Amino acid sequence: MKSENPDPKLIERLWKLRFYERSRIWPFLRFAWLLLAGVFVIALLLRMAGCGRPLVEDNLQSGLPHWSDEEFWTGDFQAGDPYNPGDIIDLPDDDFGRRVVKGALNLYYEDGTDLHAAADDLVEQFPSEIQGVLSFADAYKRLTISVDENRREQLRGEIRREVAGVRFVFDETVFRGSSWPNDPGFDDEEKRWPLEHMGADLLWEVTEGSPNVTIAVIDDMFETDHPEINAQIYDQWNTAEYNGNVRVYGGAVASEHGTHVASLVAGIKDNGVGIAGTAPECSLLLLQVGDGGGNMATSRIVDALFFAANSGATVINMSLGMGGGDDLSHLSVPQQERMIKEYAVEEGEMWDALFLELEAEGLTVVQAAGNSDILAGIDPMKRSEASIVVGAATVSGERSSFSNFGINVDVYAPGSNIYGAVPGEDGAFLDGTSMASPLVAGIVGLIKSVRPELNTQEIKALLRKTGYKMSASDTRSGRESVRVCMSCLVGEIESQV
Q1: Do the beta carbons of residue 432 and residue 260 sit within 8 Å?
Q2: Which residues contact 60 (CB under 8 A, 6 or more apart)?
Q3: Residue 287: per-residue pLDDT
Q4: 127, 152, 174 - which closes a domain
Q5: 135, 224, 402, 413 from 397: Cα distances, Å
Q6: What is the pLDDT at residue 173?
Q7: Closest by alpha carbon to 479, among 386, 370, 355, 385?
Q8: Are residues 155 and 184 in the same domain?
Q9: Residue 448's pLDDT is what?
Q10: Terminal alpha carbon distance of the chain
Q11: If the chain, 497 residues long, is cut into consecutive pieces of 10 residues, what is the mean pLDDT of each piece?
Q12: Neighbours of 461 (CB within 10 A)
């Protein structure tokens, strides 16, 4: 029979043994703790070493390790495509021919929202509907989720009605560069005609731009070592892969489109190569949003806009658009105007809110009107008064036949037979509102180099006030069409120098 009271000597021996075992293992525990602390300090120092990157980079990726279900939270495409080419589908009942990423929805929350908590609540509210988080941007409360494609339309309405704090719910729309196909016959045209027709030389006597004025170019990809732009690059970022490589994507080479556009903004003057941009002394921020095949998703564009804002850019050029609408040119202007009021309303509101926020921060967004010979506002991105929408003009001063038009087009600029830099050679001739927009973005950079206090509305009014009046045949929607004139700006800004 066991004693009810333990042997005191046995207890003493056990305690001594326990202390002995602890004393033997304690040095190893102390070493492990010191090793762990050292790793933490090194990691912290490495983190601090990368603090030169604008704050938005950290914000876009913040909190990723803190998710309880890491398999659910798939990250921000740091090592892979934002979507597979097979995931891009045409909406069957969309008159504009809009393309979207299958099974993807973007949610844009109100400021101050805890995005991680909101995502958790969203999954709890729709447990069988949401398949995963594709990407996120905590800096401005954007969440992109994966859903059943068969339920995408219905779920979009349910989220809009039932989820608190959601400002907008919109598709992951796929955009393309707004360039017109190149024609080899353009090689016979003079390379300098756009600058000559606008009177660039007279404005350059006042200013060629300031390196302190950064113009962000949001586009596909870029040839960063091209001699026309390499010395002008202030910074670069790839929102498709979340790294600083804007030259390649998925094995593709640098795109012709992005390089051409960047050179029209700030191509170097008097370097014996190609042709100068309209703002040859301004700095460039190159932002890749494309997948190498010309496709640019909504979330990547929005990420790039905020990256530009957080990187100190003052002007943003977007030579891109939905790329559809070619089959709508047979519609009358009143019919197209009705489409603007009824088509993709929430996306239009989202872009307007976004551009207004950027305008309030002192940025001016310049964007291409599109090349479908229809009202520009059918593409919801072009409806906002908080941006400058640019149409294309010919050497004779008329609207280019392909250029979108209407009351949503603020100004026109040369867009036919435009010479600019391309990868692997000095340059090539391209057509498109993609070419007209960067010319105007460069002019805005010149204006802000001298008059930094001017906001988007004041600059837009100045461009229209000093521009050339175009023929009545180009008006078509009740608004007088105006082609930009660089030399005409001299008297407006030279007194400020």
Answers
A1: no
A2: 76, 136, 137, 138, 139, 242, 303, 307
A3: 96
A4: 174
A5: 45, 33, 14, 9
A6: 87
A7: 385
A8: no
A9: 97
A10: 105
A11: 46 41 51 63 48 32 32 37 69 75 89 86 88 77 87 90 90 69 38 90 93 96 92 91 75 77 94 87 94 80 90 95 74 90 89 93 96 92 96 93 93 95 89 96 97 96 94 62 94 71
A12: 12
- Euclidean distance between CA atoms 287 and 371, whole angstroms: 23
d(CA 376, CA 383): 8
Q: Is 169 domain-assigned?
A: yes
Q: Tell me the residue range of the domain where 462 lies.
A: 177-496
User: Phi then psi for 182, rounded to 5 degrees?
Assistant: -70, 145
Question: At a CB cut-off of 8 Å and minimum separation 6, what does 131 contact?
Answer: 103, 145, 146, 147, 148
Regarding whether 129 and 109 lie in a shared domain, the answer is yes
What is the structure's pLDDT at 477? 55
Q: Which residues contact 218 (CB under 8 A, 6 or more apart)?
A: 287, 289, 301, 304, 305, 308, 316, 317, 318, 320
Please tell me the distance from the alpha carbon of residue 53 to that of residue 41, in angstroms, as a whole number. 20
- Give dist(CA 221, CA 261) in Å, integer: 10
Whether residues 448 and 365 share a domain: the answer is yes
pLDDT value at residue 177: 64
- The helix (H) or strand (E) run that includes residue 352 is helix 345-360
pLDDT at 170: 87
* Angle value at C-alpha 276, between 434 and 373, nearest 5 degrees: 20
pTM for the whole structure: 0.77
Q: From residue 266, how far is each of 199, 229, 411, 417 by CA, in Å?
A: 16, 7, 20, 18
Domain boundary among 134, 158, 174: 174
For the record, the structure tokens of 99 come out as: 């393309």
